[in-house]
Design goal:
Number of strands: 11
Helix content: under 10%
Radius of gyration: 13 Å
Order of helices and strands: EEEEEEEEEEE
Strand content: over 45%
Number of helices: 0
Distance between the termini: 38 Å
Oligomer: single chain
Length: 125
């Protein structure tokens, strides 16, 4: 039973855009924090962005602020990551994660137990 499914990865040139989407089969979806993490080869998994259950509390890692936007649609059970002004250092496998929690979302991967399989993003210079 796949609970989180990512889509939208691919290759883009530096400065380009990509939109990642995560579709969740979680109930009730509105009880879950949603997050995007990424992991580059040889590096630790890094929190990119989180969004609280109602969308009112959002976090971005400093390296993506002003370029990435996380959003969620509680009707369609999705969480998207809009990636603008992509940089080669954004190249990684991107993972969607979920945690049943109200209030501000956790930022460490160890705090999430639900994960998608990941989608590859490659940004060429």
């Amino acid at each position: 039973q796949v609970q989180l499914q990512e889509s939208g990865g691919g290759s883009v040139q530096a400065g380009g855009t990509l939109r990642l989407s995560c579709t969740a089969s979680l109930y009730p979806y509105t009880a879950y924090c949603m997050a995007w993490f990424r992991q580059a080869p040889g590096k630790e998994r890094e929190g990119v962005a989180t969004i609280s259950t109602g969308g009112g509390d959002i976090y971005y890692v400093d390296s993506v602020k002003g370029r990435f936007t996380i959003s969620r649609n509680n009707y369609f059970n999705t969480a998207d990551l809009q990636m603008n002004m992509a940089k080669p250092e954004d190249t990684a496998t991107y993972y969607c994660a979920a945690k049943r929690q109200l209030g501000p979302c956790p930022r460490l991967p160890s705090e999430y137990s639900l994960w998608g399989r990941g989608t590859q993003v490659t940004v060429s210079s």
